[in-house]
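Sharing a chain and its predicted structure for anyone who wants a worked example. Both blocks are below, sequence first, tokens second.
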Amino acid sequence: MARTKNELLGRLMIIKRMDSKEQEIAELETLLKGRLSPYQRFQIDRELKALRSGIQGEEDSAYYIDFYFGDSKNWAVIHDLRLEHRGQVAQIDHLLMNRFFDIYVLETKNYSYKLKINPDGEFEVYYDKQYMGISSPIEQNKRHKHLLERFLGFYDIFPKRIGFSIRPRLKTFVLVAPKCTIVRPPEKRFDTSCVIKADKLRTKIDQELEKANPLTDLGIIFKVCSSSTLQGIAGKLASFHRPPKKDFKSKFGLPAESFSKGENEQTTKKYSCSKCKKAISEAVAKYCRQSKDRFGGKLYCFDCQKSVGAFIKS
């Protein structure tokens, strides 16, 4: 029997969607209309193209992620998560978490044509009829994973079992466009199994999960949580999202007075806790609005959410 729209919405576990980049695009387009040196124009135009290409790649990957995991009660999906911790930043394109607290950190690269990885783990992409070296997305995602591990160790957001906080298992994948041709080295020379095409993500994760049988692995059974607990933890993690504050004028050596004051400045709506009046982020406000059955349509910070029974311990 087909599920109704309300049933699907009730199971929706997309905790956070991609942030809009329209403001950044508009600012770059405005800068291109000003007085620029040829090199400044080149830099800004390159930044704009890279931004649009990155958006397209993330949207394409988000489509496959949402299609396979977005309406599952066993998975929570977070898109475009930027975490700051002790002076370091992790910009995670997509994050998947299941009820066994397996966390998949996903990096998206919009390589539309040819990608070559040599035996030393160096990456090259085919551009303008030649291969050009680029930084390794594998190493980049490892850094994101490392900072996320430190972040999760610092903030106590996972439930406790027999007095100990559950420790999630973190895994990484690099997603590329389905039409991208990947030239790989022999696996014995350099393992590239974490680099996959976006439309193969579900198959790859299913293969990984089949290796660990929850019916025989007592450690996995010990960690399993309810869907509501998973939703609450993912919502709390998403609330730590900190959008970047980009100053394109400074980046490209443009004087601030060259444009009218207030031009393209992004306005951010402010939210506050209904109980303690402390300021809260847009992600926290969104999570509260999506959980009307718990909060009655009101907005609460995480400390106050606990007092109103926001998080249900499994």
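Comments welcome. The first strand starts at residue 14 and ends at 16.
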